[in-house]
Fold this protein.
Amino acid sequence: MSETVEALVIGAGPAGLMAAEMLAGAGHAVVIAEAMPTPARKFLMAGKSGLNLTRDEPLPAFLRHFGGATGAPPRTPGYFDQGKAVFGPPEVMDWARGLGIAVFTGSTGRVFPVGMKASPLLRAWLARLDARGVRLRTRWRWTDLENGFLFETPEGPRQVSADVAVLALGGASWPRLGSDAAWVPLLRDAGVRIAPFRPANMGFRVDWSPAMNRHLGAAVKGVALRAGEMVSRGEWVIGRQGIEGGGIYEIAAVIRDGAGVRLDLAPDLGPDALVRRFARPRAKLSLGNWLRRILGDPIKVALMLEWGRPFPGDARGWAMLAKSVPMPLGGPMPIEGAISSAGGVTEAAITPDLELRALPNVFVAGEMLDWEAPTGGYLLSGCLLTGRMAGMAASTRLIEAGAPLRKRQP
C-alpha cells in the first residue's frame, strides 16, 4: 500500500517532535513515523532523575559547549550559528511554559521543570501536536528509500511519498530505546557522507585496586577535573567498571580524543595553603588518617592513595600532588551505554538549512547530525534547536513550492 503526505517526520524524539511542531504550526499536514511502540523513549529515560531542559546562561557561552564536526578543530557547527533560527535558553524556557510546564533555574544554571519529570511535558506536547492534526504512527520502521520511504509496519509494508521529509532518527547510543543507527546504510547508499559514530557523554574504564571496593557507588564532590584547556567542577561517581557522571561527561569529548586528565582534590585552595596543611606532623597516624585530617573527605583520600604513587616526601610535594593527581583512565565506556554519540551526517553533506544535498527536500535534525554537546541542558537544547530549524526550513520549502496549506485546527 502507498500514500502521499505533505510533510513526513521520521523519528518521534525531541528533534522530530519539534520539527513536527514547526510544520504543523505553519499549517501543514504532518505524519510522524516512529519505530518504537511509544514516542520519545530516550527523552523519558533521561528525565527519570530530573529533566534538565537547558542551561540558563548567555547565548555565546551556551553555544561554546557545542562541538564541531568529527576530525575538525573544536568549534560550534555552522547550523548552530545564532544568526539563524535562534532557540537558546530563554526560548526553551518560554516554550516549556507555553506547554503549561513551570520551570526553575538551579544553583548551577541548570533549568528543570518544577515537577522535575519528563512525562508531564511530553504529554502536553503530544496533546498540542494532536490538536494541530499531527498523526503519530508507532511501530513504523523505515527500511528503504524506494519511490519515497518504505516502512515495515504491523500491517505489513507501507510506502509513503512526501513533499518534504525530516529525518530525526537519533544517533547510535541506547539502541534499546530506538537510537540504533539502522538508518546509516540507507543514507550512505544514497550518497550521504556520514562520519563514524563514537561514544559521547560516557564514562571511562578504570582498573581499580581491591582497596576501592568499599567506595564503589560513592559520589565524588568538591574536586576539579582538568583535561586540556577544559575544567569541570561537577560531581561524578566511582563505579565498578570506572568513572561516570555529569562532571566526567562535561569533558568526556576531549579525554576521548586524547587529552590527559588530572584531578585537583582542593580546587578552592592555592598551593601555599595546601603546603601549610601538609606541613602538619603525621606523628603516629596512619597515612590514611593523616590524609583524612588534611583533605577532610575519605573519598578524596581513597583517590589520592589509589592514583598518587609514588608518594612524595615533603609537604610541598604532597600539595603539588593534591592539586594534580594523575588519572590513569582506560578507554571510554561502550557506545551502547553512552548517553549520546558523536558522528553522523557530516556538515558537508547538508545545506545551512539542514537539507541533505544528496536528497532534495529531505532535512535532518538531532543526533543524526555530526555534533556533540555535554549533558546539563546542552544536549537536549541542541536537539530541540536543530529540530526547530529543520521543521522551519521544510515549511519554507513547502510554501515556496506553492504547496496548499490545510486549514488549521481550532
